[in-house]
Amino acid sequence: MSTTRNLPVLIVICGPPCSGKSTVSRQLHVRTEFSSFARFDMDELRLSVWPISNTAEDRANAYGRMHELAAEAIQQGAPGAILVATYQPMQQRRAVQVLADRLPARLMIFECGISENEAVNRFNNRELTHAADDLSAEKVWDLAQDFPYHGAAIKLILPAVHPDTLKNIILETDILIDIILEKFQAGYATCDLEAWVKLGNTSSNSIKSRETSTLGASVKLTSKSRRKARCKRFWQMLFIGASIICASFATVVAVKALLDPFPFFAQFQNRGFHGNPALWIPAWVSLAGLGGIIALLIDNFYHHSKAELLKSVVTAGLTPRITLREGTPSNFDVYRHYHRRLQSDQQGRLLIDGVPLWFVVLPHTKGFDVTTRRIQHSTVVNQQLLKERAAKLGLDYCGYTQWREKETRDQYFDRSREVGVRVLHITESKETGGPVEITVCKGSYMSYVCTELSSNLYVEGRFGFELRELFEGPAWCQSQPPVTKLDLSNLEKTSQTYEMLVGVQVALTTHDGYLILQRRSNLIQVASGGVVASGAGAAQWIDLTSRKRSLTETALREIEEEVGWVPHKEDNLDAPFLGAAFNLLRGRDLNFYCHFHTRWTLDDISAKATLRRRAYNCLPRTVRSRPRGATLARDAWELVHLIPIPITEIKIKRDGGDILSPLLKSQLGDSRHIRGLLYCLAQSERFCEIKKRYE
Q: At 465, is the secondary structure helix, strand, or coil?
């Protein structure tokens, strides 16, 4: 420590919100020993530079600016700097470590600790003008619960805040400052910084506005402008209608004039083509001209940008415009939020550390088939229950669903009417390798959009909320000790608030030892640009109309549509499923994990489609003896390229350890279902036997 005594000092006071960081730092800065230090508070800096913004990008910029100011102050002769912030993100912990090494400076880290309920109590008594206006009581509880304290850092704990004991709090603060002073004079420097950095959150929530409005921000509406817009749109539509009627009349006249010379038109007396052909040409030219004029009118009066603006003025107010943001929490954030809320006997079904996958059907070593039992009446989401819960949060659930459905419809050029499969109950066979039966009914994609795909929508601020709180119910609220815990095994109860559509994730391994993955295109809605399984998608009701009524049909359809693979006649398709799990990032996004091993090679599947092969693949599947190929797949536009992974890169560990090699980790990113698929694959006896051939 003697080597660091003469260095400038960086004092980092960090901790969750409402833990007393600012109180301690202000009292510390008043002390004579630290009065010449520069002091930078994250909240104060944000208020001065970005007073009306709380985005993740601006928070990161504020951290960077704070570090720059601290470096400038020390370089200009200050003996040290006091930095006050939560320092929960890993990248910011790394940044302050790099700053200390670059100056160089002695780094002293002090963490302010606080209980969850006390943090909420302080938050409720905090001034409304505080910089952290993106916080809510629930978020403060979560941050206090999840803060990654480090054993090597000095932990500072302030007493509970009560108005009548303010003097006692000041005295207690003096005691904490004496601790900091004692460590400072002793030449203390925090050790094991690498461990402190790695404990930080690996990602910060990136958020984007979900408000959809066709009107510009500067457009103002009055009752007079609305009346004029309605009148103008009425005359436009009337003009288009009159044009169509006139064109139809002219078409009838032209066709009659054209066909009059033909005998078959006059009571079908004779056959032949009489008449002067020179008279036909003006008639067809007139028809083409009328068609062009109508198309031009429709484009000009209906699809033109001005017409769209006019339409938005006329329809303003018909659909609510709800300002919600969509967060993208990290896998670990979602994992720990669910882990502590689950019943103790269900926490063990989160099989992969840090990945929010809750296994409804545990991995099977021998595989199984999934059969379906269809029921005619559909058990729909309980709208009344969601309305009541939403009303307690100040949200009109009916208005929300209108806004969400319109927002989704606007994203589609021409959405096809596909009917999904909604699961209501899962029954596992008592025999090893026996089939798993799921009770299903028809599902609604729009309901899925309003439930699972809306889990990460939220409102910021002191009285904010997230929709996951709405769907999960009272067990999700953590500002006070919960009365009940989440029960994910009760599908009947869960289906009251989630649509529970069924999907499949398919792993395809080739005869020459490759696992085929795919990189998704940026043109699709879900998993855009990410890495997914060989085939992935939602089950369709039409898949269950066959005699087998098995999810195997869905798996085969999805992989043929996306990758172009069709089974070899010698391929074994029996009991292909390995497990099933909820992707908790999307609430109850249920997928069954499936594995096929084919006699085809990687070249057979991904080879360039020659003209001869294109002609050959026009033959029925029962006739041709080769796979269709990825370049000829029906939905090949959905993927950018295939990713072949050597089978030997998948480790076989049955103790819940890491199954990902560095190659796979670099490819997968934060994909969840693909991790669940690989985990199940590593437990499969069939896959183990295949893997031995290539080791």
A: strand
Measure the CA–CA gap between 596 and 43, rounded to whole angstroms: 54
pLDDT in tens, 524-576: 766 777 888 999 989 998 888 766 678 999 999 989 888 888 888 888 889 99
Determine how β-strand 465-466 pairs with β-strand 370-374: unpaired
Q: Is the dihedral of CA 216, 221, 226, 229 positive or negative?
A: negative
pLDDT band, very low/low/confident/very high, at 214 (cuts 50, 70, 90)? very low
Q: For residue 314, what are its two tokens?
A: 């006329």
**Residue 416 pLDDT > 60:** no
Instruction: Name the phi and psi angles at 488, rounded to 5.
Output: -80, -15
Report field, pTM of the whole predicted structure over 0.85: no
Distance of alpha carbon 403 from alpha carbon 320, whole angstroms? 6
Largest CA distance in the chain: 118
Which residues does 581 contact at the CB level (< 8 Å), separation at least 6?
357, 358, 359, 360, 361, 590, 591, 593, 673, 676
300, 222, 291: which is closest to 251 by C-alpha?
291
Contacts 24+ apart (CB under 8 A), 130-134: 130/43, 131/43, 131/44, 131/46, 131/47, 132/17, 132/43, 132/54, 133/54, 133/460, 133/461, 133/462, 134/54, 134/460, 134/461, 134/464
Cis peptide before 646 (omega within 30 of 0): no
- The DSSP symbol for 632 reads G
Tokens describing residue 544: 């269950």
Q: Render pLDDT for 248-264 as a digit per residue (tens, 0 to 9).
A: 666 666 666 666 655 54
Dihedral sign for Cα 148, 151, 153, 157, please.
positive
